[in-house]
Specification:
By secondary structure, this protein is mainly α. Helix content is 82%, strand content 0%. The chain has 14 helices and no strands. The termini are far apart.
Length: 275
Amino acid sequence: TKKTKEKGKDAERLDNQFDVYVQKFIKDYELNATQKEAALSILREIKARSAAFRRAKKDNIEALQAALADADNLQGAETRTLFEIDSFARLNLADIHMIQGDLDTAKGYLETVYQNAGKDVYFMAQTRWKPRCLITLGEIWLRLEKPKKTEAFLAELEAQGYTELFPFKKHQVRANRLRGALLLSQGQPEDAEAEVKLALERALQLENPTEIWKSHQALGDLYKERGKAKLAKTQYRNAVKVIEGIANGLTNPELREGFLQSKPIRELFAQSKGV
């Protein structure tokens, strides 16, 4: 059927993105033969599991929990792949629970990833996923009104060079937004605005739609907090325009509808209509 063919094309594009990323990772980090084979092994395993999940139609939280259970049950296996699946599942489960407002559960998943990143067997957690973990933990602690902990995670991110040396520059954008929110909570609105504007500038340079709309939203939140309703609404509407562009690019109707009906997107649309 047409719907099945569309899903097949989406799956093929996803697999191609896996291939491109891993080849770039190997090149950027000049991996030796052993490391290269480990990276390719991870790629093969992730693609195989991705296909299995699609066949079983388990592309939701249950699928992630199943992947995590697999890794937990096979910790003795002589492969790094299971450890990487463990980290990847925990990060995504944390994101889901954050959206649902369950910060304690999200924090628990992330703290495990953070601890495991100190172990050599968690190669991808150390080199790819730790920045995401640090920033998300910082976001959680700020929402829990523990700014000192947020400062500590931002400091670790910067001290390890992730914001400059890490190949995914979107982490710089997220760090700028987080620092802006932290500064605003500390009564430094001008400095906070400068950080969020820098986040938006960098997101635009990267041409990363997700980071662009999130930066517009963050700037809108800042203006709203400062009583600048008109400026806030402009930023929210700018964010909505970007989201509509993303949605129009999704060829799968179910995927497009799921994206538009997600809680963060619905909240943003509401913000754009009335501050």
